């Protein structure tokens, strides 16, 4: 098997004494889409930011993130800049925070290309082509418009067009559709998916919506309190989920039970790496917790079609 | 036939030359639960704000229990509102007990201190908050706990109607499930009716009986939740239902763009 494009190897991040990520091990192969799913504070965004070294100041990193076999942490300033501008692209939740409000859409789209030495006319031509591909109409006019003149859905398409322009090998998408309406979300996700497949770029897709992740990704990694607790193929999510947290997430969505019945809830509130117990991170809220769970950190076990970190699964694996 | 608890007739709201709500009518029966669904800009929140009196309609009527105008205090003891973001809707310097006590004192001036304290405990029990949390400030509470406080505050004057404007949208899924169960329980316990403003169709299926679908200020479809969401008649409702991620869903680029 070929070496993965992106590899998190025992990644730990802490800010002073406070842990943010406790142990993230995950790989993304070229052309593969992996979904990172979890609730607030689970460390999904930090995991993605660690790829491009956009961690908060003063944070310490253990373990490594390798892109194409090279440790991202070892890149010098020039290489890091090159890596950020050519090899990866990011799409964030709020397009209005991504696009410079006082420059035109054309300026925004051509900036990176111009920086890479592409001529003005050629850059504009490529920007227009990219916009058309993501389903933006009236491209000439759009290029001279400013962000406030575009709706959120349209602007997010501009951000995706910009992300695709440099032909990145990896796209990092952090809740790219959370701020959009559902019908717009469907379009944006469809475009992202279609363009990614055409260019065979890999995708690391963050969302809190398990169903959305299952529709967009090949594999899903479920995070809780700074750790990955389960990894499984997207199409096996409903049948093969083994970790109690994944099951709880699947069961707590309205629509999983007939109307009028009670939703299955998880007691307590989502924890971060700081507040989670020392053993299994989910032990405080787990409906099937046993005494060993609180003291011992569960290893990642290969179960069925995926992997899960839970003591209760160790017996059936053996 | 009984007078509906809330009757909205031919409501219209214009902001300068933009028509936000355009000829909207719906009713909520006593103890009923009506969902108003739609995407951003559909006018659903404006409708909610007009019903609670936070906004004045350009034209049209809002009848609460058959009456057109109530003074503010009487209106507030009839209809209360829960907002989306519990981080913004609570006074950060006010303890939970003070927050509830203030509302109680405002609506029942005769109430003595002891019965007020008893009612605060009753409200905390109703929304599933530990009584000890009564002394806490909002910053010591999680998002889910804050939303429980906001719901307790809205239920304090014993309203007949609760307007919930995206009240579970900002919560994590596991917390959202807790709050949805709470809303179902609170309705069963108090008989309060809900006007549920939301964009999330699975939430609608779970807590509502009737639904009104809005698009660009107009009602495009209305009826029983089971009928409208299972067999939508309007093209817009069909698109809305089809774009919800679910098992086996394949996102596609829509033919028409808004």
Condensed summary:
Chain B: Pfam families: ABC_tran (PF00005). The complex is a heterodimer of chains A (318) and B (258). Chain A is an alpha/beta fold and 318 residues long.
Could you characterize the architecture of this molecule?
Chain A has helices at 44-51, 77-87, 95-98, 105-115, 120-133, 139-144, 152-165, 182-198, 210-216, 237-240, 244-251, 291-295, 314-317; strands at 6-15, 18-28, 33-37, 59-67, 70-71, 88-91, 170-174, 202-207, 219-224, 227-233, 301-303, 306-308. Chain A is of the alpha/beta class and 318 residues long. Chain A has a single domain, classed as 3-Layer(aba) Sandwich (Rossmann fold), CATH 3.40.50. In chain A, helix 4 (105-115) packs across helix 5 and helix 4 (105-115) runs parallel beside helix 7 (152-165). The two termini of chain A are 26 Å apart. Chain B contains nine helices and nine strands. In chain B, a hairpin with a 2-residue loop joins strand 1 (6-15) and strand 2 (18-28). Chain B has a domain at 6-91 and 160-242: Rossmann fold, CATH 3.40.50.300. The longest helix of chain B has 18 residues, at 173-190. Chain B is of the alpha/beta class. Chain B has helices at 44-52, 72-78, 96-107, 113-126, 143-155, 173-190, 201-207, 225-230, 235-242; strands spanning 6-15, 18-28, 33-37, 59-64, 79-82, 161-165, 193-198, 210-215, 218-224. The interface between A and B is large, with 42 and 42 residues. Chain A: One of its GO terms (cellular component) is plasma membrane.
